[in-house]
Design a protein that fits this description.
This protein is mainly beta. Helices cover about 10% and strands about 40% of the residues. The protein contains one helix and ten strands, in the order H-E-E-E-E-E-E-E-E-E-E. Strands 4, 5, 6, 7, 9 and 10 form a six-stranded antiparallel beta sheet that branches. Strands 1-2-3-8 form a four-stranded antiparallel beta sheet, with no helix packed on it. Strand 1 and strand 2 form a beta hairpin. It is elongated, with a radius of gyration of 32 Å. The chain starts with a helix and ends with a strand. The relative contact order is 0.21. About 5% of the residues have low confidence.
């Protein structure tokens, strides 16, 4: 019996001693967390429509439906701010209803707008491919349009570049008409800039 009382006394003494130490640090709301335990916010990933090397877009402009394939032969790790960044595209259209009228591409324009997390930077000069034949380049399937636009050097602080494309189409009003309806389609691609 004496031993049991002694053991109970020791346990009680330990309990009192621990209570006197106060709340453990992890339960104290005023305790500063360990610097190594502080969670860090990962950087926001930069969107990249050419992350796999290519992308296909479906655009609509009135009666015209355009399919545009875009790709680059420049690997993404070499797409740095100072590098020339070629973007190739191939475009073909269909028209609804298809009564035999043709679709022509009168003009294709690309404007490259560099940017970063803080916002857009000054755009580069527009690149324009104006048709050299009237009424334009025939782009009704199976005939397609191919072109290479080149994104020039962008500011070093840019982390991506937004490519704004505009396509101006002329559609015959009837299969034998010399009158045309103009339709415009727009598209935007975002391409990441590699840190050089």
């Amino acid at each position: 019996m004496g031993k049991r009382v002694a053991i109970v006394g020791v346990i009680a003494a330990l309990a009192i001693g621990l209570t006197g130490c106060g709340a453990p640090p992890w339960a104290d709301p005023t305790a500063s967390p360990d610097a190594t335990a502080t969670a860090t916010t990962p950087p926001t990933p930069v969107p990249n429509d050419l992350s796999t090397g290519s992308t296909q877009r479906s655009l609509t402009a009135g009666a015209v439906a355009a399919t545009v394939d875009c790709w680059s032969d420049l690997t993404m790790d070499k797409s740095t701010a100072s590098a020339l960044k070629p973007v190739k595209l191939s475009l073909v259209t269909t028209v609804t209803p298809s009564d035999g009228q043709k679709v022509y591409l009168q003009k294709a324009t690309m404007v490259a707008v560099p940017g970063n997390a803080a916002g857009s930077l000054d755009p580069l000069a527009p690149q324009v491919d104006q048709a050299t034949t009237a009424p334009g380049y025939l782009v009704l399937s199976p005939y397609s349009y191919s072109q290479v636009f080149t994104v020039g050097a962008v500011p070093a602080e840019a982390t991506f570049v937004t490519l704004e494309f505009t396509y101006d189409f002329l559609v015959q009003t009837t299969p034998t008409s010399t009158e045309y309806a103009k339709q415009t389609a727009t598209d935007t691609l975002t391409v990441a800039i590699a840190r050089g």
